[in-house]
């Protein structure tokens, strides 16, 4: 009986040990699985945060670039507007004085007219030609962009070649090429004022 009791006690101890070992293994497996899932969750969350940050940084960079481009375009437009305004101011009205008469003229918006305006005031002796114009060879050439004008109008101020200033006091058609400088506002009486011969005239900017 004692031996049988000892054997049963031994068997019970073995079964109890096995049961405890199984529970510990299950707990260990559960803990490992939980840790693995936690690490995966953390990695997923970290990756999501990183992707979001990258997207935000990209969007911020794109927005900043767009703002810079817009500011650059605005600055360029302001510079162009300023240049245009300055150009118009440089090519304004002038006064042509011949004898006791004065005529107001408007200069064209081109490089030739600007260079001509920079030379004023100017007093010159103009030579008669063909009963319709007075001309004068300048001491310095002007920038030119000549073309066939087709029609000359009374009061036209033009450049022939790059150094010959011409003031027309009659209207007619022509096959010659000129660079336009300006036009007298009201040429009425210009022919009578200039007369048939050479004449001294004064050109100055209008204040």
Can you characterise this structure?
The chain is α+β, with helices and mostly antiparallel strands. It has helices spanning 2-90, 111-118, 190-194, and strands at 93-98, 101-107, 122-129, 133-137, 147-148, 151-152, 156-160, 164-168, 172-173, 177-184, 199-205. It is rod-shaped and about 155 Å long.
Give a concise summary.
The protein is an alpha+beta fold and 207 residues long.
Large-scale geometry: rod-shaped
Mean pLDDT: 77
Please compute the radius of gyration using only Cα atoms. Answer: 48 Å
What structural category characterises the helix and strand content? alpha+beta
- Please report the distance between the alpha carbons of the first and last residues: 141 Å
Counting DSSP H or I runs of 4 or more residues, the number of helices is 3
Q: In sequence order, what are the helices and strands, one letter per element?
A: HEEHEEEEEEEEHE
Strand order of the largest sheet: 1-2-10-7-8-4-3-11
Helix % is 40-55%
Low-pLDDT segments, ≥5 res = 17-25, 79-89
How would a crystallographer describe the biggest sheet? 8 strands, antiparallel, barrel
Number of E-type strands: 11
Beta-strand content estimate: 25-35%
